[in-house]
């Protein structure tokens, strides 16, 4: 009896032992399988951003890790010698970086540099990894109208970056004129509606000590050569004839024919007007030498020095965290020229370099998977607005967007004007649906730059041209590159706009160049 | 035995739940008490009834930090500029936010016992300021002793009303030489489709007040219909004349986020812009920089709803002397001639002091204006909110 009991105990013990052993084996096998597949560390080079606390503990990064199963490690691109840093990491034989993420609004790598890197074979071809179910393919379908795939394809037929593209109404509006509201009030002046009135307002700013400091330090109108939208004369020329520097200053007239703006008498008339402003000291000479940074410092100066400037977004010039300065400026709807001409330019969304995979990367496939995930709807909402339920929520049916349409997104914590750790502040691959970008509720703060911009854009949209020529065709003329250099020369009087000889010589030269 | 055990366990569980509930109730009560205690202590220190001269306040204010103001008014930026010049060494930070957000921020500050705000400038046309901030003791009036006797009746009690405005109708001065409408029912005409502009009533307190009064005054609306059409309005069961008016008028309206956009729509967009705007009267100051819109003072049954604007001290305010000094300054000091009042002495504003003239050249008595019925709003708050959610939902475009 006792033997029997002992035997059955022994059997139980053996069964338990075998069972435990199998569980341990199974667990180890699962772990090995998992680690085999998903424990890769993908190292990504990124520019440090003062507004992002720490990319490595960032909510978006952790979300990407959870979704992909990969570990992500960010390393920072040197802020001063960033070009040298990128070149060095691309040239090294032993790749330590698996992807490079670029910020959305900085030309860290110019188009020319990018093309030279592609030519040298430094970037992996995205087409080697893409499949028909990918988010990138879906974007190609969605943005067929703007030929997204074509825009991203290099001359050898390869695609070497993942896009970062702003599709919002704000990004489509080329330029807005901002005027000093406090000066208008102090001097009892009206918001100008015509180029003639604008001239008189600028003159009054200059002559009547608009900032009331007893010194003649007012800059009536500032410009900046660094970007087309900051060149205030581009705005003024639109009161004479459609002037679209981004598409090589050509436009489709009412008959659908492509016209070179620069060859038209109205363009010359516009240049004469700009020259007059320059000659009278109303269009500041500093505008032809100052960098964007210097213009920003001038406009944000507490001494209140600038009367007017142009930009795509007010935040391009006025610091988004300066409510006093933001309250100082108001938008001016398109000015009418001497014949009542009013034009505004609508841009086409352009893909920027969001992320690239160096050819020496040891985890190309993994890097691609992460970047493709970043192009999904869920990821892009985090990239733009932060964590759902914490930083934003889907709007109620009765909520209004900043454009007065039905809102889609209600922000709970507005992330863009503060230091945060919820997303990458626009860096990396990112394309958000227009309906989300244009459907954000106003956070109630009148210093919110998106709200200020959207109010301006609604005044400009009615003056967009009916039809725009294809940008690639327009730029083939290479007409714009020369006109870009010649326009400031006419404005500053280095070439005499009033003399037919100078004008005709330039016209002939330009025509030769475009043939 | 088993049953008894079960019973005992049940009793213990119930006891535990009650104990938990008791303690959680206590802790809730404790938090509230601690905030109220904060306020009591602060009230003592703030000494809002003290008789102090501006010189004494300035001297004390010099040892304080930046004054933080939550405001719905942009003109306070101008007051800040002259205040900082008048009182060197003092600085002001302005947070310009919508009325609803202002109330939310103050409630959050109070909950967290993080008293970030010193002064509050806001209208109270949806009674939120009174219900959520004044009654619970989150904001307080500071009425300087030498100004109190100069205030108009009803303007210096639980709130210090420093400015009178009205929410009213305007028309595009480039599109029309005179007011295009004489009866409110004309706004339902097809010709005004997409040509009337107003702020979202659920986001702008002043607009909310006007909209709510159109619901409240349904008898007057009904009578106005008969005068307009020459026949009585057919009102189906469960509806009011005010609701019918809104349902017929809303498809013609473009809703915006603020009165600034309304002013831009009717005053700065040429004759092809919006034709009728419903907005706060103080935007009339934009006429000084060339905006071309005109007020509609006469309308059947009414053209405007009075909108008082208050300046209040936030409980827990850390810069009380600067705050008091700023209140005096914006009120125009004891004689009402001070520089701080000037930005508010413009077209479309009415003085709340007996010794200071109105900014607007047409007095309130000459306008078809009704007062705001705060009691009606308080009693019907949920219904009004649901109604306008429905109106917005039906009429905002995608």
Overview of the structural elements:
- The complex is a heterodimer of chains A (515) and B (398).
- With 515 residues, chain A is α/β, with parallel strands linked by helices.
- Chain A has two domains: 41-167 and 352-391 and 413-433, 3-Layer(aba) Sandwich (D-Maltodextrin-Binding Protein, domain 2); 174-345 and 461-514, D-Maltodextrin-Binding Protein, domain 2 (3-Layer(aba) Sandwich).
- Chain A is 40% helix and 11% strand.
- Chain A is built from 20 helices and 14 strands.
- Chain A has helices spanning 2-38, 59-68, 82-91, 111-119, 135-142, 148-152, 169-172, 181-187, 195-207, 232-237, 265-279, 292-299, 323-328, 364-373, 377-385, 434-437, 449-460, 471-476, 479-492, 500-514, and strands at 41-47, 71-77, 99-101, 162-165, 176-180, 219-221, 250-252, 258-260, 306-311, 329-332, 352-356, 392-394, 409-411, 430-431.
- In chain A, the strands form four sheets. Chain A has a six-stranded mixed β-sheet with strand order 2-1-3-11-4-14.
- In chain A, a hairpin with a 5-residue loop joins strand 7 and strand 8 (258-260).
- In chain A, helix 11 (265-279) packs across helix 19 and helix 19 packs antiparallel against helix 20 (500-514).
- The model of chain A has no long low-confidence stretch (mean pLDDT 90).
- Chain B has 398 residues and is of the alpha/beta class.
- Chain B has two domains: 43-163 and 308-360, D-Maltodextrin-Binding Protein, domain 2 (3-Layer(aba) Sandwich), CATH 3.40.190.10; 165-306 and 368-395, D-Maltodextrin-Binding Protein, domain 2, CATH 3.40.190.
- Chain B is 41% helix and 15% strand.
- Chain B has helices at 2-46, 54-61, 76-86, 99-112, 128-134, 145-148, 205-216, 218-229, 241-249, 259-267, 320-330, 374-379, 381-395, and strands at residues 67-71, 92-96, 119-123, 139-140, 161-172, 196-199, 253-256, 276-280, 293-295, 304-314, 369-370.
- In chain B, strands 1, 2, 3, 4, 5, 6, 7, 8, 9, 10 and 11 form an eleven-stranded mixed β-sheet that branches.
- In chain B, helix 4 packs parallel to helix 5 and helix 8 (218-229) packs across helix 9.
- Chain B is globular, with a radius of gyration of 25 Å.
- At the A-B interface, helix 8, helix 13 and helix 17 of A face helix 3, strand 2, helix 4, strand 7 and helix 10 of B.
